[in-house]
Design goal:
It is built from three helices and six strands, in the order E-E-H-E-E-H-E-E-H. With about 100 residues, the chain is α+β, with helices and mostly antiparallel strands. The chain has one domain. It is globular, with a radius of gyration of 12 Å.
Length: about 100
């Protein structure tokens, strides 16, 4: 699936499998999901702070929560993850 990866110093479009193992690898640990407006979902490492990952200012601003380490923004299709909603590209200053 197409996801927006938000790292500490960069934002990039990436392809990531929607299975749990691939998502854990992408964020560096057990995942937690945060519902965003317009149907987006942020996937983060639920233990990022305890693992002493650096604070991710951009992801924190978007989610309204403190996020540590890498975050992904994807879409949701029922109980499954899906491609990131395109409305997040302008929000982050990206164009397709």
């Amino acid at each position: 699936m197409r996801a927006l990866r938000i790292m500490l110093n960069s934002i990039a479009m990436v392809d990531v499998d929607s299975d749990l193992s691939a998502l854990r690898e992408a964020v560096g640990g057990e995942i937690e999901t945060i519902g965003l407006r317009d149907g987006g979902v942020m996937i983060v490492n639920r233990d990022g702070m305890q693992q002493q990952y650096p604070h991710n200012d951009t992801a924190s601003c978007i989610s309204g929560r403190h996020i540590y380490g890498t975050a992904l923004i994807v879409g949701a299709d029922g109980d499954d993850f899906d491609d990131m909603p395109e409305q997040y590209l302008p929000l982050l200053g990206l164009e397709e």
